[in-house]
Amino acid sequence: MTTIIQCVNNLDLGGLERMVLSLACQLKTRGYQISICCIENRGTLAAEAEQSGIPVHAIDMERHGKWVGFRNLRRWLSSQPQPVILHSHNFKPFYYAALAKITGAATGHIHTRHGAFIRHHRATWRYRLLRRGINRIITVSEDGRRELSRMSGLPIEQISAIPNGIETDFFAPATDRVQIRTALGVPVNEKVIIVVARLAPEKDLGTLLRAFSIVQRQLPAATLWIVGDGPERERLTALSHELGGASQIRFWGARSDIRNLLQAADVFALTSLSEGLSIALIEAAACGLPIVATNVGGNPQIVNAPLGGQLVEPRNPEALAAALLAILNDDTGRQVLGKAARQHAVEKFSIRQMVDGYLNLYQQACGERPL
Prior knowledge:
The chain is of the alpha/beta class. The protein has helices at residues 15-29, 46-51, 61-64, 66-78, 91-102, 124-129, 142-152, 177-184, 205-218, 233-243, 258-264, 279-286, 299-303, 317-328, 331-348, 351-365, and strands at residues 3-8, 33-38, 56-58, 84-89, 108-113, 136-139, 159-161, 192-196, 223-227, 249-253, 267-270, 291-294, 309-312.
């Protein structure tokens, strides 16, 4: 039986990590031998993976060092049922998996590059250097495919695009929205703007806070939910007080009940300066939320404007506020946008489509030469 090993930095809470766990669970239900290898620490989702019957192995590179970590990885791979297909996600796991393939510790290796390419990175040329350790390179959007080809020098035909997928039966509109809002302590008629994101500079949540201060002037009862954590939290909290209206802004922190929060909200806002194919954005669309997002990366692919929401240019709080107000002030239009967003998410970003795409590449990697 082929062993498929998902290689990630760790399994901390995040869109990429949730996607990897969903992929692993789906592959397991189809009868494959699945494990997850963490290059760093295990992370908070490791326990959930193991409860689903998926072993999690951490090589603790930061504690042992790169070369000891790689030696431990090779030793662990040799104990796995053969043949082994490695599926690495982003740069650091890519190095380890490519070297494992080159040194004969794995039968095949496919790599997914998540995120956007907003600047040249010293790692991009290493894709060319380590090509013989890769069978396939994948990005999560057509925009990412073009950018990776441009920045790495790899021919675009050597790069595939497989959109991220989610469980659209789980992320769906609420059957009883009033009950969910009541459980969260939210008034039924309150207008809620939500964002789910890591509180990091590239998400540019300062622009969202500035846009919300404009929204409040016309809708004083509107509230903003910021779900997630990260290095920008203290600065963003201070900015919310500086702009005024902090009492209407709620920092939820990292949460495990994302679906309920999405189902209770009215509109999803994303102000990223760069983006790959946002899992949070797909989950919001699947829950029937209209979206206002910046016109970067894979966002247009998900928003499907004007059917599922609106796109605005980055760093423009006035345009963002106008788009949010247009949706919040039109109850009927908001429902139409939400239904269209849901339909688009189900058609284009289901977990089944993503798994089928990767399975095809795993099967090819078993019997072909590297790039």
